[in-house]
């Protein structure tokens, strides 16, 4: 099944519960939470206290994307805050495979992300132990950017590797997806699709979700 993961980066931060409920009612199983530290990416967003509050506000799966230099230092905070899936970046200075084991030891789902210029192959050896991989389809840092087409072969390569070996690993993509290209993204092989501005930047969340679902149609991976 294809899952839409609305990114709250484009939601109304004064009304997160309202916006998340609307997305959930419109069929979103995941809520994508973008954590930025102003070092790994040139933007600052939210930290573990907000995840903790979101945990109380929703039963949806909290899909927490750590765009930070030191995931090793802050991982426990995000685990304790109630994250369901934690994504760490392969390029983060504090990244190591140990983080995957720590996430699993806490009973949560582990994911590793690559930026647009990082080759897909670095993730191949990790696939057997990962619950999800995240291919960034924009340079991380901001919502509302355009989809980078050169990431398409990486999505295809990861899907092929997952299929070939029968791995139980989701493939998420993040950045520049809207109703016009979401169907193509599923055809490339993504099964979890992050959408920020395409869900929360349109005024009517239910309508925006319906347009994305229509874009997916009956496609599957
Ligand atoms: C960007 C974030 C994305 C962002 C996507 O660094 O990781 O999750 O919110 O926004 P859109 O869907 O607007 O490209
Ligand atoms: Zn993200």
Question: What keywords describe this structure?
Answer:
single chain; 221 residues; alpha/beta; TIM Barrel; 8 strands; globular; binds D-xylitol-5-phosphate; binds zinc ion
Per DSSP, the total helix count is 8
Small molecules held by this entry: D-xylitol-5-phosphate, zinc ion
* CATH second-level architecture: Alpha-Beta Barrel
Rg value = 16 Å
SSE layout:
Elements: E1 3-6, H1 16-25, E2 30-36, H2 48-57, E3 61-67, H3 71-80, E4 85-89, H4 98-105, E5 109-114, E6 132-136, H5 152-165, E7 170-174, H6 182-188, E8 192-195, H7 197-200, H8 205-216
Parallel strand pairs: 1-8, 2-3, 3-4, 4-5, 5-6, 6-7, 7-8
The structure holds D-xylitol-5-phosphate (DX5) and zinc ion (ZN).
The site of zinc ion (ZN) has 6 residues, from strand 2.
Plain-language structure description:
- With 221 residues, the chain is of the alpha/beta class.
- The mean pLDDT is 98.
- The chain contains 8 helices and 8 strands, in the order E-H-E-H-E-H-E-H-E-E-H-E-H-E-H-H.
- The chain has a single domain, classed as Alpha-Beta Barrel (TIM Barrel), CATH 3.20.20.70.
- The protein starts with a strand and ends in a 5-residue tail after the last helix.
- Helix 4 links the parallel strand 4 and strand 5.
- 42% of the residues are buried.
- The site of zinc ion (ZN) has 6 residues, from strand 2.
